[in-house]
Amino acid sequence: MKKCRLSLLALGLGIGLFASNAQARCAPGTTCFELCPEVELETSYNTAGKALRYLFNGDGSWIFATDLDLRQDFTFSPDAMAGLAKLKRIFDHHGTTVVIVYTPPRALVHPDKVSRSGYSHSRALQSYFAANQQLRSLGYVVPDFGRIIPDKTGKFFQRRDHHWTTVGAQMSARLVADTIRELPVYEKLAKQEFVTELKGIVKKYGTLSTVATRICGMSLPNQYVQLYTTLPKNNSGASDEAALFGDDARKAEIALIGTSFSKGKLDYNFAGFMEEYLSAAIDNRAIRGGAYNGALEQVILDGMFASNPPKILIWELPGQFTLDSPGFYRLIGAELSGGCKAAGRLSGKSPVGMEENDAVANAENGVVLPLVARNHLLKFRFSDPAVYSFFLNLTYMSGHHEKLKVERHPYVKHDGTFYFELPDTGKFADDTLYSVGLRLPQPLEKKVDVEVEVCERNVI
């Protein structure tokens, strides 16, 4: 650990030296610690958080994570664009306008804090804007973070945590609210005044600091985060959580899905700031650690789109996600469109384990059913809801095989039922399904059976 060399003036002002145990405070604008060489080893992250791999020192006591912060190519792949276009059609069918809050990574917002060989801020920024335009070309509403990049206040993100500050949440909320207020649907929303109040200040060690401590054994200074609360104006100062999370919230015409940026262990009040700026209630259904897919699938499984689709869905989406998993769109698309149109045309039940087993097969009785892929989907019901992922081997009459993995986010609450689309585009779309092979990626504690149905899909 390298000691700080601070001036006598700094000492006179009471700013302590950062000793070899890294316990002392770091003077503003001064990097008083160095991460150990082990942060560059992949094996160091086996138990220290793979999502925050390859830490490195930034300027002014900042820490960055290479995988998380230094993305330079944001453009969406053809598979992602096709999947997002399909979801957009289904959202339109439900009468829901989707606002994607595609939050930029920390290095993109704070380029003055990053000096890293191989990282080009101009290239990353150009690609980020291009990705935003891709989303807009599909009909999604995307707020323009170019209005606040780079952040001249230096307060948008935390120095040693991958989350934004409450300042960043407030800046983003203002940006999103300004965008929504320009939409025709906004005028049709029920309006209600909200007020935001400061609750206090709390210590935050930081996710990046935590990883640094695990790898290097160092202790870093705490950060401090302001906490706010937003309440309906006539309930200002009330402590009744029903005012925030009760039945009224469930009836809100705006829903928010996302990650711990929107609802986490520490509340940055992103939803609350938006309520104040929009004068409209928001049903905050974000999931801490839910990645890009967890909260979306949860609201679908909870019946939001079947019973009371929101007029506006705000999808807070951190910029490190590529959204290029075809399996994600085939799972979400089947669930969002309502699953089976009618009872299954072919069904079967079998035990399931780590050895592949054909759960259903066409032509078992000598009659080939016309199960053309583009018109059908699969329904799986596992006897144990502990199943969150499984491998499929789909065989078609043409001899083609599809081998893929079906995954549900592990934080989603479910009953063991999955819907999954057969392909409606590409070389398999006109094939007739022959069999469905299935196996689990890991053993479970008890015996698991699965019921499989092949049914007609709802075409939207």
Please tell me about this protein's structure.
The structure is a single chain. The strands form 5 sheets. This protein has a 4-stranded parallel sheet, with helices on both faces. A 4-stranded antiparallel sheet has the order 9-16-11-14. The chain has a 4-stranded antiparallel sheet with strand order 10-15-12-13, with helices on one face. Helix 6 (166-180) packs parallel to helix 10 (270-278). It has helices at residues 8-12, 66-69, 78-93, 106-109, 121-137, 166-180, 207-216, 242-245, 247-250, 270-278, 294-301, 304-307, 326-336; strands at 55-57, 63-65, 97-103, 194-204, 223-232, 254-257, 282-284, 312-318, 346-352, 357-361, 376-382, 389-396, 401-407, 417-421, 433-439, 448-456. The chain has 13 helices and 16 strands. 24% of the residues lie in helices and 22% in strands. The chain is an alpha+beta fold and 460 residues long. The model is unreliable at 1-26 and 237-247 (pLDDT under 50). The chain has 3 domains: 8-69, no CATH class; 78-324, no CATH class; 340-456, Sandwich (Jelly Rolls). The termini are far apart.
Strand content: 15-25%
Q: Rough shape? A: globular
Number of strands: 16
Order of H and E elements: HEEHHEHHHEHEHHEHEHHEHEEEEEEEE
Gyration radius over CA: 25 Å
In which order are the strands of the major sheet placed? 3-8-6-7
Could you give the distance between the termini?
60 Å
Structural class: alpha+beta
Q: What is the helix content?
A: 10-25%
Mean pLDDT across every amino acid position: 89
Number of domains: 3
